């Protein structure tokens, strides 16, 4: 008889991504199929990321998951769909040294344990589902010897959370909406690698760490049902912007990139206002940051910084280079002084604070 005290595990890490042409609205809620293409930039893997370990053992009695050390339920259809899709594609695993063999059929019977950690405070109000589902699907795919490419894996991550499909790749990524009813062509493709345009620096200004009042899922459902602007956006506006954004990225054209990014964020929030009842994701501070960046760009005569806001008030600011990012940080701290230790607000590379001469501000 085989002993049942073995365990096989895989650990993976995925960064989050920020949309510069937004996804908002589904045509199929179960498969998570969008009504338009979207484009995002994937952050550095060290900063806002999720690390997930998946393990399998005959000793496990059921599928279980812990998020930041606390057990959560896997019963929701999003987790169930990802687990099922990966299990269907599992292939044989063999470790001769340890005498472990897991057949394709065994994968359907064995249970998994999943431990996932976000390296940023969950309370910071920053999206974690994108990195989370990308990481989970990638790690499960590795564990269960799934042989498919990243595009196929992205279509599975998509069923966990739409924006997650874009976190399978680094750099600039397009989520192609596809037109198949099964969703097999609604996948992420890489437009350019992380090396293509590495001057850009992204600063996320945490405006409020409160949980958002309207979840993205509910918000976009209500927008699809009630906003006429959303239908105009998805049919007439986004297709053209996607072409222009791909060109701006290919040419590293910051002026065009910045214009498209800001305009698209503003239209997304206009759609939220056009929704019945209206959804307010930005607050007064968000609006002040927009005005400030607009004035700065106008004063310089060329775009220095782009802004974009997701389903919450936090500003994602994209500076054209490191020097501009230093200036931006100084100005943000001057106009919007936080009343806490700054270093705890800069995740990852803190040297930018020293360069900006603001490390001692408290
Ligand atoms: C995006 N957002 O493109 C847009 C812009 C928020 C604003 O994707 O229901 O968590 O899981 O597919 O992906 C947030 O929505 O929603 C989002 P589901 P998701 O990044």
From TrEMBL:
Gene3D superfamilies: 3.30.230.10, GHMP kinase, C-terminal domain
Key words, A-Z: ATP-binding, Lipid biosynthesis, Lipid metabolism, Lyase, Nucleotide-binding, Steroid biosynthesis, Steroid metabolism, Sterol biosynthesis, Sterol metabolism
PANTHER family xref list: DIPHOSPHOMEVALONATE DECARBOXYLASE
Pfam family of the protein (one): MVD-like_N
Source lineage: Eukaryota, Viridiplantae, Streptophyta, Embryophyta, Tracheophyta
SUPFAM superfamilies membership: GHMP Kinase, C-terminal domain, Ribosomal protein S5 domain 2-like
Protein's name according to its UniProt entry: Diphosphomevalonate decarboxylase
Family: Belongs to the diphosphomevalonate decarboxylase family.
Function comment: Performs the first committed step in the biosynthesis of isoprene-containing compounds such as sterols and terpenoids.
Gene Ontology MF, one: diphosphomevalonate decarboxylase activity
GO terms under biological process: isopentenyl diphosphate biosynthetic process, mevalonate pathway; sterol biosynthetic process
Organism, scientific name: Aristolochia fimbriata (White veined hardy Dutchman's pipe vine)
EC number: 4.1.1.33
